[in-house]
Amino acid sequence: MTTPTTETIAFPEGSYRYANGVFQYSAGVAALPGFAIERVRFQQDVPLADGFDAIAAHLSAIGRPLTALCACELRSPAPFSERGFHDFNRLYAGTLERWQLVRGDRNPVARTNVCPRVGAPATPAFQAFSYTVPADDDAGPPSFVISGGGEAPDGHASYRDVMIRLGDTSPDGLRAKLGYVMTEMERRLAALGFGWRDAAAVQAYTVHDIGALVFDEIVQRGGLTTGLTWHLARPPIVDMEVEMDLRCARREIALSWP
Question: Is this prediction's pTM over 0.90?
Answer without folding.
Answer: yes
